[in-house]
Design brief:
By secondary structure, the chain is mainly alpha-helical. It is 70% helix and 0% strand. Helix 1 crosses helix 2 (34-41), helix 6 (84-101) packs antiparallel against helix 10 and helix 8 crosses helix 9. It comes from Alteromonas arenosi. InterPro entries: Homeodomain-like_sf (IPR009057), MT1864/Rv1816-like_C (IPR025996), Tet_transcr_reg_TetR-rel_C_sf (IPR036271). Residues 88-188 form the HTH-type transcriptional regulator MT1864/Rv1816-like C-terminal domain.
């Protein structure tokens, strides 16, 4: 029989999320389930449903903490690198390194799908916006003549490319060409993209 009332809500939430994170340190989310989590923490599955409403929301809470850790890794680079171009290179490298260090947690952030009709909660959207703001701020620092809408589009485009290189690195697809590695590809991407960005004028590039 599952234990009840052993933890207050905050303690219970920490217990659950820490256990899921520990599991994802070693194995992918595809091997995890609500019932398995309940068994690991010694509670009935119904307690998890009562707390998180559904399995998807529990995973979204895990993803939020992963993004918090990612931001905690990237944010200090704003002070370390005052030059926006150097900072962007550092952010890209740190992003890839974070994903390679915690591949299952990182992958869950992007593979997790919300149930049909469910919108991304504000607290999760805020975290996503923070990540892209780091990139957009670097672009603005390099060229403030481009308007905010185009800057955000370019930040999304650029980071989608960084994300793709990171994904290939995790899938070990880069080993098909022994002359390349993720960091070299990131530098090549940024070198070429930023060359055009720094010379951009007006509202459109």
């Amino acid at each position: 029989m599952g234990r009840r009332n052993d933890h207050n809500p905050e303690e219970f939430n920490e217990l659950v999320l820490t256990q899921v994170e520990e599991f994802l340190t070693h194995l992918p989310a595809s091997q995890l389930s609500l019932r398995k989590v309940a068994k690991m923490i010694g509670y009935a599955p119904s307690t998890l449903i009562h707390t998180y409403k559904n399995w998807s929301m529990l995973l979204l809470k895990v993803n939020a903490r992963t993004l918090d850790r990612l931001m905690a890794t990237l944010t200090p680079l704003e002070q370390k690198f005052t030059d926006p171009e150097q900072r962007l290179y550092a952010i890209a490298e740190a992003y890839c390194a974070f994903a390679c260090k915690q591949p299952h947690l990182w992958t869950l952030v992007f593979e997790h799908k919300l149930p049909a009709g469910m919108d991304i909660p504000d607290w999760m959207q805020h975290r996503i916006n923070q990540l892209f703001s780091l990139v957009a701020n670097c672009l603005t620092g390099m060229n403030s003549q481009v308007n905010a809408e185009q800057t955000l589009l370019s930040a999304n485009t650029l980071w989608a490319s960084v994300h793709g290189i990171t994904l290939l690195a995790l899938d070990d697809k880069l080993s098909l060409n022994t002359n390349t590695n993720p960091n070299e590809m990131l530098v090549d991407l940024l070198d070429n993209y930023l060359l055009a960005w720094k010379s951009a004028q007006g509202e459109k590039r």
